[in-house]
Specification:
It contains 17 helices and 23 strands. It has helices spanning 2-11, 22-36, 49-62, 94-108, 121-124, 131-136, 149-158, 233-246, 251-262, 285-288, 301-322, 332-335, 339-345, 366-377, 389-401, 444-448, 453-467; strands at residues 16-20, 41-46, 76-79, 116-120, 139-142, 162-163, 172-176, 179-182, 191-196, 199-206, 213-216, 219-222, 294-299, 348-353, 381-386, 406-408, 421-425, 432-434, 439-442, 481-484, 488-498, 505-512, 524-528. It has a 6-stranded parallel beta sheet, with helices on both faces.
Length: 531
């Protein structure tokens, strides 16, 4: 397979890999920068943003851990989709747009380009401003450079930055005399620019909460933080008027809209007018293909194709409802990339997802031990991810007691990099075993069961419903009466393990009272699970 990959990477061809698990797909993506060896950006495409976020987390794990908070730039960049339809009369999440534009800007700058970009079909289907236009609106400030404070503030406002008393999130800035605080999306911390006259005297990272200086830096990269940047009032005005005339949109409404834009208003739903801010909008793939130096890994290409089709169907339906109404709307083709355009833009290295296996309750660890023995017998290196120190300690003891030679991985060690069985800190979403690559990765979810926010919320609701005013089960004794919000009065019998599959769970044995009891109720025990 690796020979085929090398050939495909060298010639621009495509390789289709069937039957790969989600975990192996992330592992492959993590290896591709070194496999290619030419400095090309590796672009990983998932069907939707949720899958892309999971892939990003897994890729970070397989590349040796989380992003270095002290690093000037992260080697992995996310290109998120826009979470709101251009016809929804809503504005997308601001930080989503900030992150999207920041990644696009990095792709226009050879010195800033990430090694991997993780994105989704949802993100690639939405058109954006041309690369040359975004690159021209970026600026790098260096120590010793001469700048005009008010001119810089105006540049930031025009680029969508928000002026605030105190910077608290990327895309915000504050001005106090000769001090300018900026929270640039490409910096891990806000930067304090101290001026001596018009000269930049110092640039310092600082902690947003304590205001404590973290370190001095030599430069800072600034760029727009939204796509509706004003390229010139006259240009936007002429584009809007021309399009309004084309679709016979009311003149009075057009004039009012232009006045809002010329006053610098950023109103809800302004993203629907993005085509008016630029001569043309391009596919995000235009950024990823700059210099023909991108390598593509498409996860589940059919699902990606469906995601693009769904986006088009939704946009066409919404546009049909809006057409002829009180709002000026552009057709879907001005906002979205077609399936054919998207496919034509990609040099595809394809992989299709399968499913990961699970070993169930760790207290019955024999299936896991047997799998480890089988993998080691086949010469595979085994990495077991643990998402907490307590789980790592517990698993170490369980495996060691069963004769498995296991060690704790060194900080930053890549999964499967060292022979043997290693416990490694991290929480990838999926595991896999590849005899071809001689590596197996087991996740905490494979071993302990899935830990989800939904399950945690469900446990809290069940606990609150059962306990009422009681703060903790430790306050109860067997025989105490409880009133459950849904099940009524019962007698607390204690906590017991419920065998309902792997893994088993702890539940409350609440004995309901007989119907002829003074307080009523049902006969028989009542188990309240998921606590």
């Amino acid at each position: 397979m690796w020979a085929e990959l090398h050939t495909a990477l060298a010639t621009g061809g495509a390789v289709t890999i069937h039957g790969a698990t989600a975990g192996w797909s992330a592992w492959l993506a993590a290896q591709l920068p070194e496999v290619d060896g030419n400095g090309a950006v590796v672009v990983v495409v998932a069907p939707d943003d949720a899958a892309a976020r999971r892939l990003e987390a897994d890729i970070r794990f397989f590349r040796g851990g989380i992003a270095d908070p002290a690093a000037a730039l992260d080697e992995i960049a996310a290109l998120p989709g826009i979470d709101v339809s251009p016809y929804a009369d809503l504005s997308p999440d601001r930080m989503c747009i900030v992150e999207r534009v920041a990644t696009l800007y990095r792709l226009t700058q050879p010195a800033l380009r990430p090694r991997l970009v993780v994105t989704s079909a949802e993100a690639l289907v939405r058109r954006t401003m041309p690369p040359a236009e975004l690159a021209a609106r970026g600026r790098t400030l260096r120590k010793g450079e001469m700048i005009d404070r008010d001119e810089l503030a105006g540049l930031l406002v025009a680029g969508g930055w928000t002026r605030t008393p105190v910077v608290d999130e990327p895309g915000t800035f504050a001005v106090r005399g000769g001090v300018i605080d900026v929270y640039a999306p490409l910096a891990p911390h806000p930067v304090r620019i101290e001026l001596f006259g018009d000269e930049i005297d110092s640039l310092r990272w600082f902690d947003a909460e304590s205001q404590r200086t973290l370190r001095t830096v030599e430069w800072i990269h600034l760029h727009p933080v939204r796509e509706t940047v004003n390229t010139g009032a006259g240009d936007v005005r002429s584009r809007l008027r021309a399009y309004a005339d084309e679709i016979a949109f009311p003149t009075k409404a057009t004039r009012r809209l232009i006045e809002q834009l010329e006053e610098g208003q950023v109103f809800v739903g302004i993203e629907a007018l993005t085509p008016a801010f630029h001569d043309e909008l391009v596919a995000p793939a235009a950024y990823l293909a700059l210099g023909d130096r991108a390598r593509w890994l498409i996860v589940d290409p059919e699902a990606c194709r469906r995601a693009v089709g769904d986006a088009w169907a939704d946009a066409e339906g919404r546009h049909a409802e809006k057409r002829g109404g009180k709002q000026l709307t552009y057709p879907p083709a001005r906002h979205l990339v077609t399936v054919d355009e998207l496919v034509d833009d990609l040099r595809v290295l394809r992989t299709e997802l399968d499913h990961a296996r699970t070993f169930g309750d760790i207290e019955h660890a024999q299936p896991l031990v047997a799998a480890i023995e089988r993998w080691r017998g086949d010469g595979l290196r085994v990495a077991i991810a643990c998402d907490s120190q307590s789980r790592s300690d517990r698993l170490f003891g369980v495996l060691a007691a069963r004769g498995v030679e296991v060690r704790l991985a060194a900080p930053g060690e890549r999964p499967g990099a060292v022979d043997g069985v290693a416990l490694i800190a991290g929480a990838p979403a999926h595991g896999f075993a590849s005899r071809r690559d001689r590596v197996a990765v087991v996740t905490a979810a494979d071993v302990f069961g899935q830990r989800t926010h939904h399950a945690q919320r469900q446990r809290k609701r069940a606990r609150d419903a059962l306990l009422g005013g009681v703060g903790d089960f430790s306050m109860l004794s067997p025989g105490d009466y409880l009133v459950h919000q849904r099940h009524g009065v019962g007698r607390y019998q204690g906590l017991e393990k419920i065998e309902v599959g792997a893994p088993s769970r702890e539940g409350v044995n609440l004995a309901a009272l007989p119907r002829d009891s003074p307080v009523g109720g049902k006969i028989g025990p009542l188990w309240i699970d998921a606590l």
